[in-house]
Amino acid sequence: MPELPEVETVARGLAKRLERHKLVRVETRRGDLRWPFPKGFADKLTGRKVIKVRRRAKYIVAELDDGNALLAHLGMSGRMLLSKGRPETLETHDHVIMETDDGWCLRFNDARRFGMMDLVRTDQLEQHKLIKGIGPEPLGNAFSGPILAAALKGKKTSIKVAILDQKVVAGVGNIYASEALFRAGISPKRLAYTVQGDRAEKLAQAIKTVLNEAVAAGGSSLRDYVQADGELGYFQHRWRVYEKEGKPCPNGPGTVRRITQGGRSTFYCPKCQR
User: Fold this and answer.
1) Which residues carry out catalysis?
2) CA–CA dist 148, 274 (Å, integer)
3) How far apart are CA 262 and CA 74, in angstroms?
């Protein structure tokens, strides 16, 4: 499933083509994705100007000129595909089509249909059932070592599982959790409440660094993920431990191991992560 860097990359790509432009035609080619579309969904979007496109956690938010916002999630296989002009032949899984006043066409393609789209008042976004309670954005000023330490107090889960909790920090997924813990030198098995002080500061900074590097590289392309312009991301070539089981640790004599935590694979070096 796309993680924060992938969603951020897609949101930036959409912003370049959609912001300040009007949606002159919107079409839904089925009645639902993961859930049914809101009543009158296409009609409510048609004629609206896109004011801003941004990311909140792993969601894409397109703010509109009528005070509403389009809230979208890519799910497991969702792709936002931009093209100059509407393709002559649409793909089977092109479920939502949006055309702008300057001739760009956005297709939401989702083979597995785990993605979603909804309409919400922009000023009520943080109260939406899917957004409410989500923690601070790791790339923003509201996230720091002390903020992370406070969120981890009393948590007896492993630190890896804790930072996957969207209430602790928004948008950090499995790949980047492993990578950030490695860079911070913290064992993924360490109990979360023990990550305080300098450890919390190192981890917060490692999360920021690895996510920013991944965004700059266009994310990590796994299975269905592509950027809005159809290009692949390249951060998977810079993974230090993820999917490196049995390979030498980049920092020294250790060997990368894989364990399962919370039903997900974790990759780490037991020699340099404590």
Assistant:
1) 2-3, 58, 264
2) 18
3) 22
Other Cβ atoms within 10 Å of 191 Cβ, number: 14
Q: DSSP letter string over 194-223?
A: G--HHHHHHHHHHHHHHHHHHHHTT----T
Structure tokens at 128: 């939406």
Q: Residue 36, Cβ neighbours under 10 Å: how many? A: 12
Tokens of 124: 């009520």
pLDDT-derived band of residue 112, with 50, 70 and 90 as boundaries? very high
- Name residues whose C-beta falls within 8 Å of residue 36's C-beta, 6 or more positions apart in sequence: none
The pLDDT of residue 6: 85
Tell me how far the alpha carbon of residue 156 is from its chain's centroid.
26
Q: What does DSSP assign to residue 51?
A: E
E-strand spans in the chain?
Answer: 23-28, 50-56, 59-64, 68-73, 79-84, 94-100, 104-109, 116-121, 257-261, 264-268
What are 219-272's pLDDT values in tens digits?
A: 654 444 445 655 555 456 578 999 899 999 999 889 999 999 999 999 999 999
Confidence (pTM): 0.90
**Distance in Å from the first CA to the final CA of the chain:** 28
CB 148 within 8 A of CB 200: yes
Alpha helix (H) ranges present in the chain? 4-18, 41-45, 145-152, 159-164, 174-184, 197-216
Per-residue model confidence as pLDDT tens digits over 118-134: 999 999 999 999 999 99
